Each structure stands twice: as C-alpha cells, then as structure tokens.
C-alpha cells in the first residue's frame, strides 16, 4: 500500500498518503502527539466533546503544521451527517478553526483549489475522506458516517469538484482514513435497510445466531460509489485501519462508549514559493 507512517516509540502519530509533497500535503492523525488528558488523550481535535479548548487549539496547531499550514489557515465543515459540500475560497480562511469562529454550516464536505488553505474533517469511527485532483490542482475533505455514506457523499464530492473545477474522476485520488470497519461495526435493520437499498448486500455480513444484526463495511460502500463515478480502482486507497480494534492508538466512539476525542483528516495545497 502506498502509505507513509510517522511515529515514535509510543506508536504512530500520522498516516500519510504517498502523494508528492510539493503538490499536495495530507495526513490522518492518531491519538498520540497531543496535549489533551484522558479521555481525550492526547491529540483530540474536537471542541464539542468536552475537552479543554486551549488543548484542542494546541492540538489543531500541531495538525496544521503536519501539512505545512497554520491554525489560522484551517477551514472546518460543521459535520451534520448530511451530504452537503461547500466550495471554500480565500474568504473562508479560518472558519471553524477556533471556538469563536463557527464552522461552515450544514455541510460534511469541503473542496477548494486555493493554495495555503487547510481543509480538515473530524471523525471517531466515521470515515474521513481526502480527495486530490492532480489535473486541476483541487482538493477535498469529507466526513462519511453511515448516513453520509448512504446519502452518497463520496459521489457528491466528485460531482461538486466536477462542477466547480472541471474535475474528471479519472484524475482523482481518494484516501479512506482510519475508521470503524466490518470487524467491529454491528448494525441493525435501521441501518442495514438503506445500505441494501443503495449498495446491495455486498457491504453486509449476517451475524450467525443474532437475527437482525449485521456487520457493515462503510468502506465497501464508499469504494463502490467512487468506482461507479469513474475513479480508477488503482486511485482508491484505503488506510485499512480499524478505530474500534485499536482504541489505544485511535479515537473510537463505539469502543469507548461515546467518551472520547476526535482524530482528523487534513489536506492542503502548498502555497507557491
Ligand atoms: Zn475492528
């Protein structure tokens, strides 16, 4: 897999797509390397989970720096488990980066072609997605939980990039970040029914001896959407890491019963030097 890991003896801190860093910088975070205390230890980037704001600000600073940016460059979507995507321009710089600047409302995805802006999405089991259009130098970040996945937010991102930047799916690379996977993601018919309607039975495993319970692969759904939209298989990359299997290394809402932090997916086009 074309992936670069960065870490220390204490474990991994970043997983990065192996994209040329002079073209685009991107990363997914782990738990380590931040300043928050339990249950948010230590690199929590979510203000809304009950952590100290000054800790989250410092953690976000470190995350922005990991892609060569600054906290002030960050742009954050509200993340409402929808499928809305916002086009981010220079005027949006800093939106959602600190508690007194609200995030971009009602959207779960953001796209831009402005160098220097740092797009970020948060997750703790939901799938963070990063998009890079090599031909038009455009990027995107999206949060895809089961509702967003069933709503086809992955396809919506490509559609908006196409409308805005003339992006062609064959030029796009997509990364699926650390997220809960089929090994750990038990759902009932409330979730399984819309998944079957949108994606068939392939993403669902029936649980033996547990009627009405299934193991769901959000990643299978998202990859199917991307392939159907025309992204070549070889340009769909999955980090393959399960948050719920590794709560010591990653934040998992389910494994930690809701009391935990948020990891992030972050992407930035370098400023011209
Ligand atoms: Zn797992």
From TrEMBL:
What the entry lists under InterPro entries is as follows: Cu_polyphenol_OxRdtase, Cu_polyphenol_OxRdtase_sf, Cytotoxic_necrot_fac-like_cat
Catalytic reaction annotation:
adenosine + H2O + H(+) = inosine + NH4(+); S-methyl-5'-thioadenosine + phosphate = 5-(methylsulfanyl)-alpha-D-ribose 1-phosphate + adenine; inosine + phosphate = alpha-D-ribose 1-phosphate + hypoxanthine; adenosine + phosphate = alpha-D-ribose 1-phosphate + adenine
What CDD domains does its record include? YfiH
Keyword list, A-Z: Hydrolase, Metal-binding, Transferase, Zinc
Cofactor(s) this protein cannot do without: Zn(2+)
Summarizing the function annotation, the protein's role is:
Purine nucleoside enzyme that catalyzes the phosphorolysis of adenosine and inosine nucleosides, yielding D-ribose 1-phosphate and the respective free bases, adenine and hypoxanthine. Also catalyzes the phosphorolysis of S-methyl-5'-thioadenosine into adenine and S-methyl-5-thio-alpha-D-ribose 1-phosphate. Also has adenosine deaminase activity.
Q: Which family, according to the similarity comment?
A: Belongs to the purine nucleoside phosphorylase YfiH/LACC1 family.
Protein name as catalogued: Purine nucleoside phosphorylase
Species of origin reads Alicyclobacillus cycloheptanicus
